[in-house]
Specification:
The protein is mainly alpha-helical. About 80% of the residues lie in helices and about 0% in strands. It is built from 11 helices and no strands. Belongs to the binding-protein-dependent transport system permease family. CysTW subfamily. Its main location: membrane.
């Protein structure tokens, strides 16, 4: 009996060791490519950083310049997308958590939202091209912002839904027992308790749309000049990087690497801030 138990114990130890070895190897394999990509981006990007990158416009072919108009265009379209997608996302997430939490319609909406969350961004860009760009007859920054807003929307819906459902039901019951209307409970009690989590979702959505290229190729396209007209094509960092990386001009390729490095830093900063806000929220709840 003891020999059988020893063999069984040895077999379980071998399986545990094998699973640990394979999972560790998979982790190292994934991290290797991630570190390689980051190292390449940083090494090429840092070498091409200079003041002109932030003070000059995108240059004509073969010339030197910067990406000031592209940074402005990306910031403007991203902020407009956040302004369009966040209120709708928070309202939809509130409906799911507070009014349709245990109803069949809530399950259906969450399923559709998950599909939209995982939909390829190029499909969303093609959709906005059909309903906006094709109708207007030209590319525009407004169409780009709408395409990015469709990416922001499911992220904010999911985050708001989950954060509101994490609020203890006793808080709702205590407020309702005092005769407070449902809408006041939601806006003055539940939103305050889950504000950090919702803000984290908005920051993660902003980090995601900052590097999106495919939807902007179908909507905002590019512009070599400075413009604040939302109804005209507008320069943006992802498309400029894409076009410069494919060009045969060394000056354009250098600008592309510098732009990629700045975007990587920006997304990293947003991710760190989002994690910090979420960690502070968890610590406060504990």
């Amino acid at each position: 009996m003891s020999a059988v138990a020893d063999r069984l114990y040895a077999r379980r130890r071998f399986k545990n060791w094998l699973a640990l070895l394979l999972s560790g190897a998979a982790t190292i394999f994934g991290l290797f490519w991630l570190v390689w990509i980051l190292w390449t981006t940083v090494s090429y990007g840092v070498n091409n950083l200079n003041l002109a990158l932030f003070t000059q416009m995108t240059p004509p072919p073969g010339d030197t310049g910067g990406m000031l108009n592209a940074f402005f265009g990306s910031a403007l379209m991203s902020l407009l997308a956040i302004a369009l997608g966040t209120p709708v996302g928070i309202a939809a997430g509130t409906y799911l958590a507070e009014y349709a939490n245990y109803r069949k319609v809530g399950t259906v909406i969450r399923f559709v939202n998950d599909i939209l969350l995982s939909a390829p961004s190029i499909v969303l860009g093609l959709f906005v091209y059909t309903i906006v760009v094709a109708q207007m007859g030209h590319f525009s920054a407004l169409a780009g912002a709408i395409a990015l807003a469709f990416i922001v929307l499911p992220v904010v819906v999911r985050t708001t839904d989950e954060m509101l459902r994490l609020v203890p039901p006793q808080m709702r019951e205590a407020a309702l027992s005092l005769g407070v209307p449902q809408w006041k409970v939601t806006t003055q009690v539940l939103y305050r308790a889950s504000m950090s989590g919702i803000l984290t979702g908005v920051l993660l959505a902003l980090a995601r749309i900052s590097g999106e290229t495919a939807p902007l190729l179908f909507t905002a396209l590019n512009n070599q000049y400075w413009t604040t007209d939302l109804l005209s094509p507008m320069a943006n960092v992802p498309v400029v990087i894409f076009q410069y990386a494919l060009s045969p001009y060394e000056a354009w390729q250098s600008l592309g690497w510098a732009g990629a490095f700045i975007m990587t830093l920006f997304v990293l900063l947003l991710s760190v801030v989002a994690r910090f806000v979420l960690l502070r929220n968890k610590t406060g709840n504990n």
